[in-house]
């Protein structure tokens, strides 16, 4: 995108220079000075806007939220120039956070691995359809928790989706970040067939396999995730 914008600006500069070539020398020089100043500012703005690829978590300063650009501190996976056309999101190393795989042009894929140590809890849901499609694509999930410090239940909604970015497929396991909630109070799964399953009191920090019409048929706890945060048992 940045290269296309710069190429467009260069073509515009060439056209403008041709148009003003008939002006007197003082007017020509002043016009060139102003045009080059505007063009350089636009080019720098385009490059800088492309560089802001990673930010810290929001921090609060009084009543206002702010974040810091850490793109140049995030390593070559973020700061190095690379031609890419797509990316996929999912927990590549099964440690409870979301990683990114970037699909490069004429090169190997790049893995941007998140090694978060926040200590927050999470849960993954793998949908298995029976009447619906086997992958559960189109299933709508609602995850309800009680987060310490919040007066009302915290409800999150997500869907099992196919595809994603260009020639890329996101993880079919639905990931919910749970903060400090110690269990999932309620999990609702509405399948494309119209079937609705409700499951209560699920332990966190694990992957739960939910089969249409049957509920939980399997749970998996990952060693990598256990090294990050301990597994909490549901009641």
Could you walk me through the main structural features you see in this protein, from its secondary elements to its overall organization?
The protein is of the alpha+beta class and 235 residues long. The chain folds into 3 domains: 50 residues; 46 residues, no CATH class; 108 residues, Immunoglobulin-like, CATH 2.60.40. The protein is built from 4 helices and 13 strands. A 4-stranded mixed sheet has the order 9-6-12-13, with no helix packed on it. It is elongated and about 85 Å long. The N and C termini lie far apart (52 Å).
Write the layout of secondary structure elements.
Elements: H1 2-20, H2 25-51, E1 59-61, E2 64-66, H3 76-79, E3 84-90, E4 99-104, E5 110-112, E6 121-128, E7 140-145, E8 154-159, E9 174-179, E10 183-190, E11 196-203, E12 207-211, E13 215-220, H4 223-228
Parallel strand pairs: 6-12
Antiparallel strand pairs: 1-2, 3-4, 4-5, 6-9, 7-8, 7-10, 10-11, 12-13
Helix pairs in contact: 1-2
